[in-house]
Description:
Elements: E1 2-8, E2 11-17, E3 33-38, H1 39-45, E4 53-57, H2 66-78, E5 86-91, H3 93-105, E6 111-116, H4 119-125, E7 133-135, E8 138-142, E9 150-153, H5 163-177, H6 183-190, H7 192-196, H8 200-220, H9 235-245, H10 249-266, H11 272-284, H12 295-303, E10 308-309, E11 312-318, E12 324-330, H13 331-337
Parallel strand pairs: 2-9, 3-4, 3-5, 5-6, 6-9
Antiparallel strand pairs: 1-2, 7-8, 10-11, 11-12
The structure holds adenosine-5'-diphosphate (ADP) and zinc ion (ZN).
Amino acid sequence: MAYITLKTPTSESHINIGFEFTEFKTQIGKSQVVIITDSNINSIYGSQFSEFKVIEIKPGEKSKSLEIIGDIYKHLLDCHIDRNGLIIGIGGGVVCDITGFVATTYFRGIRFGFVATTLLAQVDAAIGGKNGVNFQSFKNIIGTINQPDFVYCDPKMLDSLPDEQYRCGMAEAIKTSLTRNNKLFDFIDENKELIISKEYSVLQKLIYDSVKIKVSIVEADEIEKGARKILNLGHTFAHAIESKTGMQHGEAVSIGVCKAADISLKLGFLADEENKRIRELFKGFGLPTEFKFDFEELLPAILHDKKKDEQIINYILLNGIGKPVIMKFHYNELKKIF
Ligand code: ADP
Ligand code: ZN
């Protein structure tokens, strides 16, 4: 078991990696506790938290809507949860996003925490306090940044995770590894087989190191005024591809990062050999690295991306493995580069 604390000027978030999920109940009281989870997780793990009140949502991105948020507020009122309540989201990124948003807005904010059950949530989505729902065709544009009191990550819970979801988590872990020196990248590269076979101690280290990197970036810039933008590596295009095609987030991130690496190569930032290594690593986990797209077609989605500032696009490039740079492009320039 390993602990990491994420400290911001206004909060402390306690992250536990490698705890036994079955121990989780012993850590919390029962009164005024509500669990938000999705039906898949409830059917696999629900018997382990059956003594708590549970709000179940449908799995998937579609649940991240204001309508579902409204339904959850109603449930919370029915359960007589007030400002002393505690909401625990048990699930992947979708459950964490919804839980964080509900808990931040209900009674102007009540306590909340996560049991992150997907690799993507353990290495990325559950960490850093971003929450939100989709609106119209735009991803995550309604939301806040607010740190959970706690995050539990149990690598054993990943045993039940479908391969496709597991792969998607690896896309975010590789992305994170590209933002800070080359140690985590090399570790992933050297331990590919053990990661694929979900070897416990290797997973524990992978999650710990990814969280450690993300925590240090978030601590330096919680509200994404500067340094935190590097975590958006690959995401400008990923979000656009996702909203156009409905592709899984992790797969789109893999394509988006490879595109950023290609452009970094073209502009002379990245060596050919490094570009190849990045691509091969994503491929090694069965992730896609290419996607034929028409820039004009993706443009509206890119310009509505919440990271757009006027028509200037913040685009993250790589000066080498582990050396991200934040570049600003007018969209015309970016188009030319494509
Ligand atoms: P992400 O973290 O990728 O955003 P989601 O919250 O969309 O993930 O979850 C992806 C899918 O995996 C959902 O269908 C969810 O019900 C399912 N899921 C989440 N955690 C587990 C798990 N530990 N075992 C099996 N299925 C899971
Ligand atoms: Zn992401």
